[in-house]
Amino acid sequence: MKFSSKSKKILLAVICSLICILLVIWLAVSFFSNHSDDNGFPFGEDENIRELNWFGEETYSELHETCSDKDINGLQPLLDDIEHACSSIYATTKEAEKDLGKLYVFSAIRDTAAREEHQIYFITGKVSGDNAYLWIKYWQRVYDTTGKEIMGRGSQKEMIKVRIAAEEQDGKWVATKTMQGP
Prior knowledge:
Layout: H1 5-34, H2 45-55, H3 57-61, H4 69-87, E1 89-90, H5 93-100, E2 108-109, E3 115-128, E4 131-143, E5 149-153, E6 160-169, E7 172-180
């Protein structure tokens, strides 16, 4: 079977087009698969699915609720307590829990800890009578006296999401449960 010169050019153009399309698809797949977190999950939708599975659908849906100014103002003292807990350094869990209650999970608990640094960002929250919840994301680093990092939670790039449940006791919000994300 002989092909004419024109048929050969058309066939060559079709093959080149297919190769270009496959190259673009390969580049796109390579780009997105190389942009993943330390656990191999790509950023974006799969990260949300991982968090959804971790927290559960009902709890995770709270992240999409808007927070009123009244709720933000009402939860500010609890946010201040979380800030204090993150800044606190304890030698033992028992000491931290005694002083901070359920918020002890944010403190630096290392007998060799000398200083810490962190950032906390409020995501959302809601007050409903004597009960409330709030969502934050944060990272934290703890250092010994030589400046060596001895403990870390999350990073500036990959912050940990946390849901804090609270109830009002004697006019003060008290954390009753914390749930840290993966």
